[in-house]
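hi! just following up on the protien thing from before. the input was this:
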Amino acid sequence: MENLKIALENAGVQHADIVLRQAILETGWFKCTKCSLSRNNIFGFWYKKKYIQFDNWKDCVAYYKRWQDRHYSGGDYYVFLKKVGYRYGP
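and the predicted 3d structure came back as:
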């Protein structure tokens, strides 16, 4: 998990602490067996109703950075996540 936080920061991902919590939530503390983790997809990205496959988790971090650059223009990150349809919490 510490390596992930470092990778997020090194990639320039904004709000790295929140994004780290997204990965924890998506993967059940990186222990899930029936989730996107088996595809090195630590954030649950999907396309055409299927999880996107990555060669490794660092490629997924790079994808997150590109996704964030395209969609996030500043402000409250939790509000942004809700706006783009990310569901977190109860």
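The longest strand covers residues 46-47.
The chain has four helices and two strands.
cheers
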